[in-house]
Amino acid sequence: xxxxxxxxxxxxxxxxxxxxxxxxxxxxxxxxxxxxxxxxxxxxxxxxxxxxxxxxxxxxxxxxxxxxxxxxxxxxxxxxxxxxxxxxxxxxxxxxxxxxxxxxxxxxxxxxxxx
Amino acid sequence: xxxxxxxxxxxxxxxxxxxxxxxxxxxxxxxxxxxxxxxxxxxxxxxxxxxxxxxxxxxxxxxxxxxxxxxxxxxxxxxxxxxxxxxxxxxxxxxxxxxxxxxxxxxxxxxxx
Lengths: 115, 113
Known about the structure:
heterodimer, A: mainly beta, four-stranded antiparallel beta sheet, 12 strands, 0% helix, globular, B: mainly beta
C-alpha cells in the first residue's frame, strides 16, 4: 500500500525567509504527486502537482516542488514566505495505474510564518 | 462556475444515530470521492463513486455507505455513529477521463457526542 511521510509536523520560519516542507512517499512504478494547502476550517486547495515530465514543478503563490525519484521525495519550497502562507500543508500521492486514482495523504505540516 | 459544495457545514449527533452528508460536484465533473479527516491528521479515503456505483473503497467499515445520483451529486451515510467518527468529512470531485486532479469542497464538520 502507498504511504506518505511528511517529516516535519511544524515548521516555524520568519517572514521573507525561504522554507522547505519535506515529503517522502513509498516507491511505486509510477506516481502522481500533489501538494495541497488547507486554511482553517476549510477544504483543500491544490498548490501544485507532478504527473510526468520536468521534475521541477511550479505552483500557485510562488511555491515549487521537486520530484526526486531516486530518493522518493517531493519537497515543497518557497524562496520568500509571507505571513499569509501560515497554514497546514499536505503532501499526497496517487497511483495512475490503480483504478479510481484515490489520494493517499501525509499527516500534514503546519507552516508558521513569524514577523 | 460553482465549485464543490457540501451540506451541512456543521452537524452534531449522538452515539448510535445515523447521519447523511451531501455533496454537489464541480460543474462538468462526474466522479465523487469522500475523505475523512480526523483532528490533527491527513484526510483518509473512504470511497469513490462513478456512474452511480462505488468504484473504489478505502479501509472503512460497512457502517459507511454512499450513493451517487444521476446528476452526479452524492451522499455519504454513516450508521451507528461512534465517538471516533467525529471528523471533517471532505468531498472531492473529478472527471474520470482526467482524474489526476481532485477538487475539494469545504467539508462537513461532524461531532458525535
